[in-house]
């Protein structure tokens, strides 16, 4: 079942790049970090709403696995950009990836999906 949590959250295509902005030591938006554009526009609500809507779709269809986009603030798994728009990667998961994992759904990216 193809879904885009960012579009489900009301964001447009194309859209301004956004990154997870670390608050303290926490990179998880589920635990208080934010998603913002380089201009400082806070998109946390849209990212959370979209992730919740996409999770709902997945649960409705009985999904047990997901293939997501690596390094995305929604879908990144294991690494995301550092929140400084510097192209540096740090350990962490995107909003949707984190939500899926918290619901026991196995997550892959296009880079580690077993063929």
Q: What is the topology, as strand order, of the major beta sheet?
A: 1-2
Low-confidence stretches: none
Beta-strand share of residues: 15-25%
Biggest sheet overview:
2 strands, antiparallel
- Shape by Cα distribution: globular
* Radius of gyration (Å): 13 Å
Spell the H/E element sequence: HEEHEEEHE
If helices are DSSP runs of H or I spanning 4 or more residues, what is the number of helices?
Answer: 3
| Helical content class | 25-40%
Tell me the distance between the termini. 18 Å
Blueprint (SSEs and pairs):
Blueprint: H1 5-8, E1 18-21, E2 34-37, H2 44-60, E3 65-68, E4 79-81, E5 89-91, H3 95-102, E6 106-109
Parallel strand pairs: 3-6
Antiparallel strand pairs: 1-2, 4-5
Helix pairs in contact: 2-3
Keywords, separated by commas or semicolons:
115 residues
Model description:
There is one protein chain. The protein is of the alpha+beta class and 115 residues long. The protein has helices at residues 5-8, 44-60, 95-102, and strands at 18-21, 34-37, 65-68, 79-81, 89-91, 106-109. The strands form three sheets. A two-stranded antiparallel ribbon has the order 1-2. It has a two-stranded parallel ribbon with strand order 3-6. The longest helix has 17 residues, at 44-60. The radius of gyration is 13 Å and the shape is globular. The chain starts with a helix and ends in a 6-residue tail after the last strand. The mean pLDDT is 93.
